[in-house]
């Protein structure tokens, strides 16, 4: 099997040429274009809940929902949610990069393996300081902090209690459907 590797620049040119449509749910992972799972109603509910719960951080962080995040020259992902360093004007002429991310959140119903085995190591390598993976099947939130190589030095799975980001406390039970 022959695989063709692409850069993020190639990825954008494919979109500009119409090869990739605006509504295509794809990411660029280590040079390969990967199709994302469709979003179900529980996924959409949790994502909307997170936007609502994290809204008080406005001014401290920019809330970016399902938008591109450039991790390396050959990896551009679309996390469900990212908290980025403000101000938003810094992203007027460029895509947000790993160094801009304060928190990345993935909501997983059918994508848990992909999020934990493929994307999490990429986030760690890129130095994303904190990642939450909301596991809709087991109804828990996996929290990862302190990136080290392709993993995180601190990992926990929460079924209750609180999540904390930038001084904001978020009850785990309010994140889960």
Automatic annotation (TrEMBL):
It comes from the Bacteria. Residues 9-166 form the Putative restriction endonuclease domain. It holds the Pfam family Uma2. CDD domains: DUF820-like (cd06260). SUPFAM superfamilies: Restriction endonuclease-like (SSF52980). This is Putative restriction endonuclease domain-containing protein.
